[in-house]
Amino acid sequence: MGGIGLERLSLNQATVKHIGLEDTVALCVRHDIPAIGLWRDRVAETGLKASAAAVRAAGLHVSSLCRGGFLTRGDPDGRAAALADNRAAIAEAAELGADVLVLVCGGLVPGHRDLGLARRLVADAIGELVPEAQRLGVRLGIEALHPMFCADRCVISGLGEAIDLAMRFPADAVGVVVDTYHVWWDARLPEEIARAGPRIFSYQVGDWVLPLPADALLGRGHLGDGVIDFGPISASVAAAGYEGYVEVEIFNAGIWDAPADQTAATVRERFAVALGGFD
């Protein structure tokens, strides 16, 4: 019997969206959550150096910084702006000591329906970012999103596709993010997780709840509230060699409106049940 213990739990800031960075840090300390996944907008509110100092003073590990990406701008000015923003994100991840900078790659090129074009732009942009990431010791994690987000958020829609893209670049610089919400449905998921192996830079968990809300982005729930079987996925990730932190990342309006301490306590309880033991 294997399992993932609470010593590897990370709270992604998105799960408690309505509180700021310093309050989220304090929340993690109160609930004995050893790591935190940060979001760039909340880091910017507090300030980069102040954010890094707050996390370090609390003894927390930064499991990820979200997000870079949105690389599918076809016009020269838009493309230059996207690359500049991603280089800034790489520098922020380095300052924070984040395990990975998560890339949500972007949807279709504005004004175009050409998926191939969008995917080529993503690959080209990552290639331009790799030298800076390597210089600063930052790992880039390509996150495949569920296909329903292909048009507007991410043209990389399956874990296999993300792995194929990552493998075009050095293994120390580019890997993948396995997010249960986005990949649980994939019939080839165990094989793809095994193929990813050391390219798995982050493992994120959140449940798929029904019925989906009008804004499908908010259709995540606490572990156990939906349809995802976390045991087999977690066992596959463990068998692939991933030993890093596991982030609970939930986008859900009701959870956001709940008291943050209640949410953190539920995160710990559900994590222990869903990931604490699997065959």
Short description:
The chain has 279 residues and is α/β, with parallel strands linked by helices. The protein contains 11 helices and 10 strands. It has a single domain (22-215, 245-274), classed as Divalent-metal-dependent TIM barrel enzymes (TIM Barrel, Alpha-Beta Barrel).
Task: Describe, in plain words, how this protein is organized in 3D.
Helix 8 runs parallel beside helix 9 (230-239). It contains eleven helices and ten strands. It has helices at residues 21-30, 40-46, 48-57, 76-96, 115-136, 159-166, 180-183, 189-196, 230-239, 253-257, 260-275; strands at residues 9-12, 35-39, 61-69, 101-104, 140-143, 174-179, 200-205, 207-208, 220-221, 246-248. The chain has one domain: TIM Barrel (Alpha-Beta Barrel). Strands 1-2-3-4-5-6-7-10 form an eight-stranded parallel beta barrel, surrounded by six helices. It has a two-stranded antiparallel ribbon with strand order 8-9. With 279 residues, it is an alpha/beta fold. The chain is 43% helix and 16% strand. The model has no long low-confidence stretch (mean pLDDT 97).
Determine Rg (CA atoms, Å): 18 Å
> First CA to last CA: what distance?
5 Å
**Coarse shape:** globular
CATH architecture title: Alpha-Beta Barrel
Beta-strand content estimate = 15-25%
CATH superfamily: Divalent-metal-dependent TIM barrel enzymes
CATH topology name? TIM Barrel
Mean pLDDT: 97
Strand-pairing-aware structural class: alpha/beta
Helical residues, percent: 40-55%
Unreliably modeled segments: none
